[in-house]
């Protein structure tokens, strides 16, 4: 019987680092000095060789109750052992600095007694470079220095260092801090740590206040927004797909991938989700990152967070893997794939940002037009050619309907941008190509005998990515072809009320897990088709699988409800935000809440407008 760990962790970070903390206090995942750097703690992937940083009571781990401080990414875990109660506050400092923030490569753990007598010990067991190389911990006069490949790290505390290194028990009589930093670090004191806690908490609260939340499920949307923000790399503007590597999509499979890189597709979706909530800075910084990588040569699906072009994939055979299920991979071979949907997602990102009056300054906007032209020309050239699809098949190149649809998006949106910039001749030519492309997709991508849009042109299989066709503007959501697709997908692609990407075999066999964002796409498509109650039901069903602090991984096992796949997955939280906003807008219109101060109870004209 495989023991599958629960992905019930909280995530902390500040734009420079990300760490996962379980409800037992165990910090089980941390990579330094960057999101895609080598792991320091990797117990998530090997409970013996991975390394961990935890607080023990009576030499054992206790199960605590986790929650974020309201509207922040500061994680609080509370414990009780007999009469003793205490809490741990875990956070990475995010400090105000002029017009931006300072995000040092540093995290703090603050232990505070709540009641009774508390006896604890510290298990600080870093394993540098995924546990591959030698790790030495030296006790200096005011800190522990961790030496080895990828070091040095420094641990500072107001406990006696001998207590930490000897794992000796101590009585928690007042606040204790444990501060872990990469590289050089200023001396820490309890007062300084508490000031950084206050500044970090206040900064997150201020960021949350500037979110324009929908009326529908605002708490879930805000937690998703805070999660997305943590995946944006402060240094370059890159946005990573997920915090982890090698958590399998399904147990017993080889579907283990490294998602700690900037997929341009995923990043573009994150930017749009945050823009819809009123946050523009992430989009501005990502566009600069995009310009930088675009100038380096042909666009590729993913990049290192520093803009590096290579992410060679290799296996770490010394790690057992999540729940003992390997292989553990670092790097991702998808970096060399052809994924033709890429131009469309980037163009959507460019178009929405360039037409947003909060950002659109003519001179600056014109500076992006060479990139617009390049994306359109590449989309026109690549649309008729096979690729590996949004699902990154490793051996199955084909003419994928979603890839062709996204090429249409790139061309059609490019024409709109060209018109805005006065490039009318270009706009006319591009629009003519876009019209032809749309005809190809609607004629060859829909199978009249099967009654649904198919994964490939002229194909036979359903594909959940095609639920996005109305969102992209390619087809009306109430077109009979799409309504039929919606019905057929609800039968063909669902398992226990959750939607899979597809069911047919790929490079590794037939998938068994539900790809979580697909269920949010399903909810949004149902809403756009006017089936609001059904959409709400799907949305709420999926949200019930969130972990105790509101985070989602990439996949859900329909048979057990367990979260699987890399965690937290930015794409999933994008799906939640977009579906919630769409549902909110349509529900508000249906219920007559379309004006300031309006109350529920739709007038007849509103009912007609949304029917």
UniProtKB/TrEMBL annotation:
Pfam family, one: Glyco_hydro_15
GO molecular function annotations of the record: hydrolase activity, hydrolyzing O-glycosyl compounds
Domain Trehalase-like N-terminal, chain residue ranges per copy: 9-156
Coiled-coil segments: none
GO biological process: carbohydrate metabolic process
Occurrences of domain GH15-like (ranges): 219-580
Domain of life of the organism encoding this protein: Bacteria
Matches recorded under SUPFAM superfamilies: Six-hairpin glycosidases
Protein name: Glucoamylase
Originating organism: Mesoterricola silvestris
């Amino acid at each position: 019987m495989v023991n599958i760990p629960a992905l019930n962790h909280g995530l902390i970070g500040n734009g420079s680092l990300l760490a996962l903390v379980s409800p037992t206090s165990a910090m089980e995942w941390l990579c330094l000095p960057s999101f895609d750097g080598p792991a320091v703690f990797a117990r998530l992937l090997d409970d013996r060789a991975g390394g961990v940083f935890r607080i023990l009571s009576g030499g054992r781990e206790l199960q605590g109750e986790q929650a974020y401080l309201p509207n922040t990414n500061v994680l609080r875990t509370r414990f009780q052992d007999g009469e003793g109660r205490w809490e741990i506050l875990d956070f990475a400092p995010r400090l105000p600095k002029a017009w931006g923030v300072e995000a040092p490569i540093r995290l703090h753990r603050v232990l505070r007694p709540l009641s009774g007598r508390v006896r604890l010990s510290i298990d600080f067991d870093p394993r540098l470079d995924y546990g591959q190389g030698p790790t030495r911990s030296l006790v200096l006069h005011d800190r522990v220095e961790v030496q080895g490949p990828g070091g040095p790290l420094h641990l500072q505390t107001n406990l006696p260092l001998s207590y930490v290194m000897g794992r000796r028990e101590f009585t928690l009589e007042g606040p204790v801090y444990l501060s872990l930093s990469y590289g050089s670090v200023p001396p820490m004191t309890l007062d300084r740590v508490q000031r950084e806690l206050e500044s970090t908490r206040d900064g997150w609260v201020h960021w949350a206040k500037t979110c324009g939340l929908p009326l529908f499920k605002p708490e879930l949307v805000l937690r998703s927004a805070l999660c997305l923000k943590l995946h944006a790399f402060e240094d370059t503007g890159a946005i990573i797909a997920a915090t982890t590597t090698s958590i399998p999509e399904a147990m017993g499979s080889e579907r283990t991938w490294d998602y700690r890189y900037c997929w341009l597709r995923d990043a573009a979706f994150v930017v749009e989700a945050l823009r819809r909530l009123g946050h523009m800075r992430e989009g501005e910084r990502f566009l600069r990152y995009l310009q930088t990588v675009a100038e380096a040569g042909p666009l590729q699906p993913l990049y290192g967070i520093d803009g590096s072009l290579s992410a060679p994939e290799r296996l770490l055979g010394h790690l057992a893997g999540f729940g003992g299920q390997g292989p553990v991979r670092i790097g991702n071979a998808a970096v060399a794939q052809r994924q033709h949907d890429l131009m469309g997602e980037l163009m959507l990102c460019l178009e929405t940002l360039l037409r947003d009056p909060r950002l659109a300054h003519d001179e600056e906007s014109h500076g992006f037009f060479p990139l617009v032209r390049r994306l359109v020309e590449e989309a026109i050239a690549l649309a008729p050619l096979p690729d590996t699809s949004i699902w990154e098949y490793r051996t199955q190149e084909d003419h994928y309907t979603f890839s062709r649809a996204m090429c249409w998006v790139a061309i059609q949106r490019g024409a709109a941008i060209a018109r805005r910039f006065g490039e009318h001749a270009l706009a006319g030519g591009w629009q003519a190509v876009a019209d032809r492309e749309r005809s190809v997709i609607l004629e060859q991508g829909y199978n009249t005998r099967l009654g649904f849009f198919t994964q490939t042109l002229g194909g036979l299989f359903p594909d959940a990515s095609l639920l996005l066709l109305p969102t992209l503007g390619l087809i009306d959501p109430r077109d009979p072809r799409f309504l039929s697709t919606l019905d057929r997908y609800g039968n063909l692609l669902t398992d226990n009320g959750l939607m899979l990407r597809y069911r047919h075999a790929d490079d590794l066999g037939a998938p068994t897990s539900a790809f979580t964002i697909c269920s949010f796409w399903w909810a949004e498509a149902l809403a756009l088709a006017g089936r609001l109650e059904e959409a709400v039901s799907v949305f709420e069903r999926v949200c019930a699988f969130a972990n105790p602090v509101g985070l989602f991984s990439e996949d859900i096992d329909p048979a057990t409800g367990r979260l699987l796949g890399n965690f937290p997955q930015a794409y999933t939280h994008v799906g939640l935000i977009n579906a919630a906003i769409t549902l909110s807008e349509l529900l508000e219109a249906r219920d007559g809440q379309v004006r300031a101060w309006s109350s529920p109870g739709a007038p007849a004209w509103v009912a007609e407008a949304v029917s």
